[in-house]
Design a protein that fits this description.
Radius of gyration: 23 Å
Bound molecules: 4'-deoxy-4'-aminopyridoxal-5'-phosphate
Shape: globular
Protein name: TdiD protein
Organism: Coprinopsis marcescibilis
Order of helices and strands: HEHHEEHHEHEHEEHEHEHEEEHHEEHEEH
CATH superfamily of the largest domain: Type I PLP-dependent aspartate aminotransferase-like (Major domain)
Keywords: Aminotransferase, Pyridoxal phosphate, Transferase
Structural class: alpha/beta
Family: Belongs to the class-I pyridoxal-phosphate-dependent aminotransferase family.
Largest sheet: 8 strands, mixed
Helix content: 25-40%
Number of strands: 16
Cofactor: pyridoxal 5'-phosphate
CATH architecture of the largest domain: 3-Layer(aba) Sandwich
Number of helices: 14
Strand content: 15-25%
Strand order of the largest sheet: 4-12-11-9-8-5-6-7
């Protein structure tokens, strides 16, 4: 299907926008979220920063008793990886690194991220309709967002396949699913429209949210095209659905076509109502996964609901992690950070190319795939040997061709090659011939050997 992009999406002019009112979100909060009380201590913590305030509020330990004297970092320059810059964290910065902090995250860091988001996504930096809040990784923030928006039994629209890390969240919250299959352009908008137009509310509650991974989807590797994004956003508007835009691979786009805008950008570009998009971003793929630092961006009321959850669970993102991230980003500035992300994306493009060459050499007649344009995954459809086929009677469509979980467990693992079974990425009980392959870590030689082993075991099993 070809879609003509509306003039609003292609022109530089911005159209008038109207933020959805705060009541729009409060009416949609889950019962548990609506009933969640602010934390008496952590909600008052920002008041400590008032000039002249003598605080006896929090049970903060005295950092004079802590054993750490300083933290010295050696950081690669974003433009010249051979150049190492030294950053020292000491004095009051060290105290902050070792102390409790506000739930939202260090104010300076939140402001830095917000400025970056305004610049990168073309949003008004002075608008009060959206804000940013840090959390311990986007995985945790996703859990809390789902928890804030869905009651047990509510329906969530997910892509088929979807992120295997999010299905346990939805299962734990007793969600029901509405699956929209994905092609090489992203979730199939016409399927979504048909599904919603024919929804039978007596069978399942009408969905409130659409969970999507628009860049380099984990696991399918698909980047949702510009045209498809417009269609999906328009459907979300028409059917009153909130978009949960899970975008940890936003900065890992290396496709040839111009990078499509995020939904957060697009809702502003198209004009009309804004506030239908809640974004999830992460430093995991560009600074350090072990930092456990991510952020949400979106309507203030929804962000506040998630913060209320944070203040009674993790309390705050790690101070140490923030204290390390902040001086780095201040030193780099937004331009340096973006230069670093460009270099990171080109690293992954090079890994993608190397992996694709291995696939072409060894698996051309044993698997099918689409070449990803972002992130670190190939979504292979294996031509499985007869011994692990035909175990899937009654499951839908093209996936009826085997059980990659059995193949990996019984065959591939014993040859020393490990892959993620595709079934983990579907919310129904289907088995599938798909596997998710991450090409991020292996060296050229290891890739070659891994794919060679996979081909060998597929071929042997097929002929045995
Ligand atoms: N969403 C997706 C699609 C992911 O692939 C991941 C990481 N594997 C996450 C969320 C979680 O990222 P974080 O490390 O920020 O928790």
């Amino acid at each position: 299907m070809t879609v003509t992009l509306p003039a609003a999406a292609t022109s530089k002019e911005t159209k008038p926008c109207t933020p959805l009112p705060s009541s729009y979100y409060t009416e949609r909060l889950s019962d548990v979220s609506a009933g969640r009380k602010p934390s008496p201590i952590w909600d008052l913590l920002p008041v400590e920063d008032t000039p002249g305030m003598l605080s006896m509020l929090a049970g903060k330990p005295n950092p004079a008793t802590f054993p750490f004297k300083y933290i010295h970092l050696g950081v690669r320059s974003p433009t010249d990886k051979t150049k190492i810059e030294e950053i020292a964290i000491e004095g009051k910065d060290l105290d902050a690194a070792l102390q409790y902090g506000v739930t939202t995250g260090f104010t300076e860091l939140v402001d830095w991220v917000r400025d970056m988001m305004a610049q990168v996504h073309g949003r008004d930096p002075d608008s009060e309709a959206w804000r940013v809040s840090l959390g311990p990784g986007s995985q945790d923030l996703l859990y809390k967002a789902m928890n804030a928006l869905v009651n047990p039994g509510d329906t969530v629209i997910v892509e088929g396949p979807t992120y295997p890390g999010v299905t346990p969240i939805m299962a734990a919250l007793s969600c029901q699913y509405a699956v929209v299959d994905v092609d090489d352009q992203g979730a199939i908008a016409t399927d979504m429209e048909k599904m919603l137009a024919n929804w039978d509310r007596s069978v399942k509650p009408f969905p409130k949210v659409f969970y999507t991974i628009p860049f380099g989807c984990n696991p399918s590797g698909v980047t949702t095209s510009y045209a498809r994004r417009i269609q999906l956003l328009e459907i979300a508007r028409k059917y009153d659905i909130i978009i949960l835009e899970d975008d940890p691979y936003y900065f890992l786009y290396y496709g040839k076509a111009p990078k499509p805008p995020s939904y957060f950008t697009l809702e502003k570009q198209l004009g009309g109502e804004v506030g239908r998009v809640l974004r999830f971003d992460s430093f995991s793929k560009v600074l350090a996964a072990g930092f456990r630092l991510g952020w949400i961006t979106g309507p203030s009321t929804l962000v506040a609901a998630i913060e209320r959850h944070n203040s009674c669970s993790v309390v705050q993102p790690s101070s140490l992690t923030q204290a390390v991230t902040l001086p780095l980003l201040k030193q780099w500035k937004i331009s340096g950070f973006l230069a670093h992300t460009v270099a990171t994306a080109s690293f992954y493009r090079q890994r993608r190319d190397a992996f694709e060459a291995c696939l072409n050499r060894h698996l051309a007649d044993l698997a099918e795939w689409t070449v990803p344009e972002a992130s670190m995954f190939f979504w292979l459809k294996l031509r499985l040997p007869p011994t692990v086929r035909c175990q899937n009677l009654g499951s839908p469509g093209e996936e009826d061709e085997g059980d990659s979980a059995a193949f990996i467990r019984d065959k591939a693992m014993h040859r020393g090659v490990l892959l993620l079974p595709g079934a983990n990425a579907y919310v129904d009980d289907r088995s599938t011939a798909r596997v998710r392959v991450s090409f991020s870590l292996l060296s050229d030689e290891q890739m070659e050997e891994a794919v060679r082993r996979l081909a060998e075991v597929l071929r042997e099993e097929s002929t045995s």
